[in-house]
Amino acid sequence: QIPVPVLGISASQHPVKAGLSDAFMILNPSPDVPESRRRTIYEYHRVELDTSRITSMSAVEFTPLPTCLQHQSCESCVASELTFNCSWCHVLQRYL
């Protein structure tokens, strides 16, 4: 059960984000405190949900897009309708 409707939560007090994202993190030494590290998160892809559709007893299903790894040959990869460019990796002997 969701006790407060998501749209009723003030974005200035507590921003609500729902979805999936890919990111990586880098720890940098903090110039102010030598013993500490500053954490920097770089997000490179995000899938956001419409927060108005988040209700009690609801569920979300994410379906992954196809990738080059699903293809077993050059011909099947080239014949697919992927929206990015696959390339052959000689070290791994497969498409990436």
Write up this protein.
The chain is mainly β and 96 residues long. It folds into 2 domains: 1-62, no CATH class; 64-95, no CATH class. Helices cover 6% and strands 28% of the residues. It has 1 helix and 4 strands; from the N terminus they run E-E-H-E-E. The protein has a two-stranded antiparallel ribbon. The protein is flat and about 55 Å long. It starts with 18 loop residues before the first strand and ends with a strand. The model has no long low-confidence stretch (mean pLDDT 78). Its main location: membrane. It is a single-pass type I membrane protein. InterPro entries: Plexin_repeat, PLXDC. This is PLDX1 protein. Keywords: Glycoprotein, Membrane, Signal, Transmembrane, Transmembrane helix.
What's the layout of helices and strands?
Layout: E1 19-29, E2 37-48, H1 74-79, E3 88-89, E4 94-95
Evaluate the radius of gyration: 21 Å
Structural classification: mainly beta
Percent of residues in helices: under 10%
Distance, first to last CA: 42 Å
* DSSP summary: helix tally: 1
User: How many distinct beta strands?
Assistant: 4
Summarize the structure.
With 96 residues, the protein is mostly beta strands. Helices cover 6% and strands 28% of the residues.
